[in-house]
Amino acid sequence: MDATSTAGPMAGVKVLELGTLIAGPFAARLFAEFGAQVIKIEDPRGGDPLRKWRKLYPEQGGTSLWWYVQARNKQSVTINLKSDEGREIVRALAAEADIVIENFRPGGLEKLGLGYDVLSRANPGLVMVRLSGFGQTGPYRDRPGFGAIGESMGGLRHITGYPELPPPRIGISIGDSIASLHGVIGALMALHHRDATGGRMHGKGQVVDVALYEAVFNMMESVVPEYDAYGLVRERTGASLPGIVPSNTYACRDGSIVIGGNSDPIFRRLMIAIDRDDLANDPGLASNDGRVPRTAELDAAIGAWLAPRTLDEALAVLHAADVPAGRIYSVADMFSDPHFIARQMIERFTLPDGQRLALPTITPKLSETPGSTRWLGPELGEHTDSVLRGLGYDDARIARLRADGVI
């Protein structure tokens, strides 16, 4: 499909991506999946390091399989940002953009002469999403900050895992992804404000400042008021959900099962399903505040019922009782699960060498304007010439810029 051909709710929106690896590119990816034209600027000398992260295909000298997901529907344009002519190209692209997404360390774009103050002069309606470890202000702004640091400082690591063990990391870059989602939400709100105050030509753009640690901190539910009111520091509690009972991971005869029986009517159904009518009818357990002090007792009762049963046997009883329960899926389970299949959560595409490759389907599902994968992550600089031609550069000038190492 033509790289400029778009459909979806973000069709007509132009996004300029100045970022590498995870947080910035993931935010831009969401816009690309729903129809925005996303121009990704990459260094001519190798491009985004994500191209070589994790498993490659082919394994020797190939491209990251993650890249095909993270960069789908984007246009790759190679520009040397250390060259004057390269920065001139970026300024020209920003002048036509609705959104710029960047995840340089704070001050990095300013050193290149590409800060918001510069780019917005020619485009007052421009929205710039700035993703960084600690934000654009404050005493830590100049520190390097990856997702792992944001997860730690934002509080997530402290409450994750078992109390007798050091805090583990979650097996994905969750801090970066949470920050990306906040960046997209902020950009959409800023676009709405711009359009409500005069549109692209006359409306007012703004900066969306997302710090990774603050995005994680924003997900921490009630830890702040609990500490302020009671001096309570929430700690690691393993697989249970503190203060919400019963909600835990339990052992069956052949594996682990997760049960969420924490609403009042569900708790009653759960107790009846495990043959503990005495607990179901205990008035002291009718609401969550009464169940919390008896957490150990309730977990023991549930565990005793599950221990002699297989996962399938337990799930059949619990599902019949309308109790939320499920096994813990690996990716192999997802490929064969009938619900994943019915919801079309995995799609297959063809790589340039003919290899078929499964990718996750785009989320969320919109009934009228769904997202789509129009093409997989592009080759390095695949769209450089076409994008420059769109700016009015002729073939001779493009050839000279390439010879000079600008592109």
TrEMBL record:
This is CoA transferase. It comes from Pararobbsia silviterrae. InterPro entries: CoA-transferase_III_domain (IPR050483), CoA-Trfase_fam_III (IPR003673), CoA-Trfase_III_dom3_sf (IPR044855), CoA-Trfase_III_dom_1_sf (IPR023606). The keyword Transferase applies. GO terms for molecular function: CoA-transferase activity. SUPFAM superfamilies: CoA-transferase family III (CaiB/BaiF). The keyword Transferase applies. Transmembrane segments: none annotated. Keywords: Transferase.
